[in-house]
Amino acid sequence: MKVSDFKKWINSYVQNKKNTEHDNSKISFFEYLEYIKKFVYSRKIDRLQFPLEIYIELTNRCNLDCIYCYKKVIGSRNDDILPEKAIDIIVENLGSNPAVLVILEGGEPLLHPRFIEIFYKFKEYSVAVDILTNGTLFTPEIVHDLAKIFSQKYDSVQISLDGLGDYNKVNRGIYGNLVLDNIKLLNDAGIIPRINCIVTKFNYLGTIDFIFYLEQNYKISSLSFNIPMGHSFQDLILADSEAIELYEKIIKIQDKLHFNIFGTIINIEPDCYNCPPVRNESKDLFMRCTALRAKICIAANGDVYPCVFMENRIPPLGNILRDSLQEIWESSYSIKFVQSLIQKNGRCLSCVNSQYCTQICWGRK
């Protein structure tokens, strides 16, 4: 099988059968998010009037030292902690806005000394919250407090875990046992997280055992596979032949799982650079990047960027401590950025493979 044959599968793994009791007359909050993003992806809407997703870096502190950490590359690993005043301002900017998803990230967000209070503050205003964490810092007390107002319909937890035993340690510096124990804590409290796994040449051999172990022992909503992104980490990426072999094994077992599998294990950027664009005769457009089109990022010092990968790479759009989100979103710089982004991605927009390709991320170069 050729690498090019996989493009149609990228980010479109077959989903498990839908619950027959699902009420098709209503859509869930997360289905709503995907519904809106499809309009942005297809450029039926170039940009929304307000961000759909707001990434908030509570801190740049982290208790791990992953080998593919982009924060180290862009020089934002420091001791910044987002001040409570900034959280208050963000809440004021949002009001009671159930149409927005706030993503609490880092660094490691649980290292913020007032993490639970921040989560509660957003929930007080009925804002949906997604927590991106390495899963090492959950305690029975934290999970108990989280579960009190956590809604599986509107809130989510993503845990980064790259395998069992040594397979996680080689990527992330710790064995996976602690994280697995904490997933069990969450499960016991009624919280079903999703898992994100970065596949490298060091941990890929443990991937299938990892999938079956999760299937047999834990409740998770999905398992996403990704590869290290950016030229600094190209030497960590699997060879095509190894990625193809692993992919074929995953395809054979995915229908036997109670959770969905998403993502890509293949590095397709070199393909894109070396191949001429293939025109999409149907004229359907697909632009994966939603920076300043549907999302925005607030760094731990309050600076605002189009996305997390552009932090410290371009001048900030403003600072949440002095500028409102709406002002930043509607600024002439933001509008020009989107225009430039669309122009730079022109080659991808009309490519027949664009919908199944990770496309070129301008912030990850």
TrEMBL record:
<dbReference type="GO" id="GO:0016491">
    <property type="term" value="F:oxidoreductase activity"/>
</dbReference>
<dbReference type="InterPro" id="IPR017200">
    <property type="entry name" value="PqqE-like"/>
</dbReference>
<feature type="domain" description="Radical SAM core">
    <location>
        <begin position="48"/>
        <end position="260"/>
    </location>
</feature>
<keyword id="KW-0004">4Fe-4S</keyword>
<dbReference type="InterPro" id="IPR023885">
    <property type="entry name" value="4Fe4S-binding_SPASM_dom"/>
</dbReference>
<keyword id="KW-0560">Oxidoreductase</keyword>
<dbReference type="InterPro" id="IPR013785">
    <property type="entry name" value="Aldolase_TIM"/>
</dbReference>
<dbReference type="InterPro" id="IPR058240">
    <property type="entry name" value="rSAM_sf"/>
</dbReference>
<dbReference type="InterPro" id="IPR050377">
    <property type="entry name" value="Radical_SAM_PqqE_MftC-like"/>
</dbReference>
<keyword id="KW-0949">S-adenosyl-L-methionine</keyword>
<keyword id="KW-0411">Iron-sulfur</keyword>
<dbReference type="GO" id="GO:0032324">
    <property type="term" value="P:molybdopterin cofactor biosynthetic process"/>
</dbReference>
<keyword id="KW-0479">Metal-binding</keyword>
<dbReference type="GO" id="GO:0046872">
    <property type="term" value="F:metal ion binding"/>
</dbReference>
<dbReference type="InterPro" id="IPR006638">
    <property type="entry name" value="Elp3/MiaA/NifB-like_rSAM"/>
</dbReference>
<dbReference type="GO" id="GO:0051539">
    <property type="term" value="F:4 iron, 4 sulfur cluster binding"/>
</dbReference>
<dbReference type="InterPro" id="IPR000385">
    <property type="entry name" value="MoaA_NifB_PqqE_Fe-S-bd_CS"/>
</dbReference>
<dbReference type="InterPro" id="IPR007197">
    <property type="entry name" value="rSAM"/>
</dbReference>
<dbReference type="Pfam" id="PF04055">
    <property type="entry name" value="Radical_SAM"/>
</dbReference>
<dbReference type="Pfam" id="PF13186">
    <property type="entry name" value="SPASM"/>
</dbReference>
<keyword id="KW-0408">Iron</keyword>
<protein>
    <submittedName>
        <fullName>Radical SAM 4Fe4S-binding domain protein</fullName>
    </submittedName>
</protein>
